[in-house]
Amino acid sequence: LATLYTVFFDFDSAVITPIGQQVLQALVQDWGAQAVKFALIGHTDRAGSQAYNKSLSERRAQSVKTFISQLGLPNSNISTAGMGENAPAVATQDGVREAKNRRVVIEVQQ
To answer: Is the pTM of this model over 0.85?
Structure first.
């Protein structure tokens, strides 16, 4: 059973918010001393082109990787991927801004 953490992002941004930083600090406190893997999957809403959103989702995942690496998690235990707008948490029409879709989901793989 995987443990999931989610960090949300502002529109058109890969900058981790203060709340997102708290989530990531909790992740590192919860799991940092254990030999586990972290899969970071970036997502976007459906505003913007598919190509742009794919890139943005990858930048979001990389932003999270950089942040948790700086808190001491080894890069070798962290994988990243970007789904763009293809796996929304909330289904919307194309072009719709949806805050719940602008996220990185962190799966802790034990």
So the answer is: yes
